[in-house]
Design goal:
This is DUF1540 domain-containing protein. By secondary structure, the chain is an all-beta fold. It is built from no helices and 9 strands. It has one domain. It is 0% helix and 29% strand.
């Protein structure tokens, strides 16, 4: 049995149109990052009038599909924390950095 890894938190999300965003904090339990062409937040759900997720919880990065990111080791994010906002589209990991 292996010990659970501490996952990085979403320190800031400026995507106000996302249902998980409550005043700059992401309240999804965990998010998934990555697409073939950029570091998209796959947990993004465009529902600005709906508040989803868990109150009092700040999201963590559950998985990252961008193996070319310098923070990625075996598809797990090892950044101290991430920020989500517009880059290639409305909700991308702004902490993403190529190796």
């Amino acid at each position: 049995m292996t010990a659970a890894m501490e996952m990085p938190r979403v320190q800031e999300c400026v995507v106000t149109a996302c249902g998980y965003n409550h005043t700059g904090d992401c309240h999804a339990f965990a998010i998934t990052i990555g697409s073939m062409d950029h570091a998209h937040c796959h947990t993004f759900i465009e529902l600005p009038a709906v508040r989803a997720g868990v109150d009092g919880l700040i999201a963590q990065v559950g998985a990252c599909q961008r193996a070319d990111c310098r923070h990625n080791d075996q598809l797990e994010c090892h950044a101290p924390g991430i920020k989500v906002g517009p880059d290639n589209d409305m909700a991308d990991c702004l902490t993403y950095a190529t190796r």
